[in-house]
Amino acid sequence: ITKNNHKFFADEIVLATSFVQSNFLWNLESKNLVASLWNKNSLWFHQKEFVDEKICLIGSGLTTVDVIVGLKNKNFSGEIVVISRRGNFPKKHFTSVQKLPDFILVDDAKKGVLFLCLKVRKFLRNNPQFDLRHVVDSVRPITKELWHNFDSKNKKLFLKLFPYWNIFRHRAPSKSIEIIEEMIATNQLKILNGGVKYLSKNGEKISVETKSEKFETDYLVNCLGFEFRAQKYPLLNQMISEGLLEEDLMMARSKHKKIHLLGGLNIGRDFECTAVPDLRTDVEKLVAIIG
């Protein structure tokens, strides 16, 4: 391992890095553009007291929900525009839990994604007291096994549904979604579907062009999700070129018995791998291997 021109040797390597946020496609130099919410350069945005400015958020996931609620808590009175490819916010958490019958079996995955979708649709049609959130919760204990039983073709097919899975799997507090619904009803928050076509500077403002319209905003914030391509991670990319790792369907996997991946890097292998129970299980297995 080489770090800052210092080289040292290790008997075992454990890669446990987190995901990185997706970047904008446009290199736009502007003090009012928050290219990433999670680096030290964005601290000013979190601390700023906004009043009646116009703020544009790219993405509509949990990060966007957090930003909107934070602005509301600061009594923000301006306009918020959310741009999203599909225009879907996360679903609400349940206020009460309803137990769902275990109608999906691990072996169902061997019959493919289409079979599972039809099975779920039929169940919800015949049981209107439940919705898709109940189904997602019911398969949570076996999600990893379902993923393992998909063949390569069906894994790729399921990944096309991945954005919709996230809406129902990674939910938001009811109060947060109610704030968003209220802001939409009062026209303080507007959702534009279809993504961004072009960004440019116009003085202190930023011009945003989507498929449906063009407008100016005072601030533009990157609320996009995580990157699941190994090429976006310099260390993984370098290790792949050295033959130590190989690309997986999502992220990468080890090609060396002394190199181990932990946590989110195993998303291609296990799909569900970032929650505390999953991490705990992975750590226990890894400790047993390393001894």
Molecular structure report:
This protein is an alpha/beta fold and 291 residues long. It has eleven helices and 14 strands. It has helices at residues 43-47, 62-73, 113-126, 132-139, 143-149, 152-160, 162-169, 174-185, 234-241, 267-270, 276-290, and strands at residues 2-3, 6-7, 13-15, 33-34, 54-58, 79-84, 189-193, 196-202, 205-210, 214-217, 219-222, 245-247, 252-254, 259-261. It has a five-stranded parallel beta sheet with strand order 4-11-5-6-7. It has a three-stranded antiparallel beta sheet with strand order 8-9-10, with no helix packed on it. Strands 1-2 form a two-stranded antiparallel sheet. A hairpin with a 2-residue loop joins β1 and β2. α2 crosses α8. The protein is globular and about 55 Å long. The protein starts with a strand and ends with a helix.
Question: How would you concisely characterize the structure shown here?
Answer:
The chain is an alpha/beta fold and 291 residues long. The protein is 35% helix and 19% strand.
Can you tag this structure with a few keywords?
11 helices, 35% helix, 5-stranded parallel sheet, alpha/beta, 291 residues
